[in-house]
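Lab manual, section 2.4: Encoding a predicted structure.

Procedure: take the sequence of the chain (307 residues), apply the prediction step described in section 2.3, and record the output as structure tokens. A sample record is shown.
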Amino acid sequence: MIYYLTAAARTAPMRLFLKDWGAPLRRHVRLLAYEDRPNAAALPDGTFLFADVDRLAPEPTTIAAELWDALAARGDRVRLLNRPGVSMRRFELLRTLRERGWNRFDVRRLSESDANLRFPVFLRDALEHRGALTPLLPDAATLHAAQAELRHAGRRDEELLIVEFADTIAPDGLYRKYAAMIVGERILAHHVMFGRAWEVKAPSLAEPAMIAENRAFQLANPHEERLRELFTLARIQWGRVDYAILDGQLQIWEINTNPTLLSAPRRYNAAQRPAKLWFADRVTAALLALDDRPARRAGWLARLFSS
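Recorded output:
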């Protein structure tokens, strides 16, 4: 059994995937909420996937960490993914990637000086995955005005990050947002989204050439080894990374440890569905491979990953 742990209000991503795409998983995945304080002693051996660890509040983080420690005492009888309090959150991840030369853009907390900040910048939530909270801000004056406006709206400084803008527009005038999943030890190319604006949050463009490019990306999985390095650095074994490419170098935006895997099937047209079904099958197979009864599925998994 796979125990998928999330905040109580954020079970939808996995619940909807099971409903719409992951039928073979339904008997193998059980959703648990941190707020319910799961009792480790009452849980059988199995795989425990700690989702949402990149945005948990302090109390649920403590609950999750205590559960992890209690389960870890069982040794090889359990498999644990995403250690709460150890897997990197957004600020630590982006700051580390900047320091190590992966990312060309910096990130700062509002409590830090904005000296030598490279404009334009934008403000975003330190934990949530809602994208930018402001348009691009060209200078310190507009940055300070935006900060004041968000404070007036009730946002606390510790909830916000200042992010330098990295312009990843391609020669064809398009912005591309790449996404890939890690499921245990497997890296799965998820999708490429295309847009004409600098922030690509939804597949607003789906022309035939883009659908073909997305499919080629899935099948080639061209960044697999670099992303494996990334997830190892971030200490994350389940999640989706969103990134772009600038002069051949990956620019990492975030890792979401409770991502939306796929939208409802009706959201995709006929030309898009083969790629979505392919991805759903790979995620399903990778999750089943984490379950504690591998022998029953060995033949099916081998056939799927060889196809």
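Check your result against the sample. The two ends are 26 Å apart (CA to CA).
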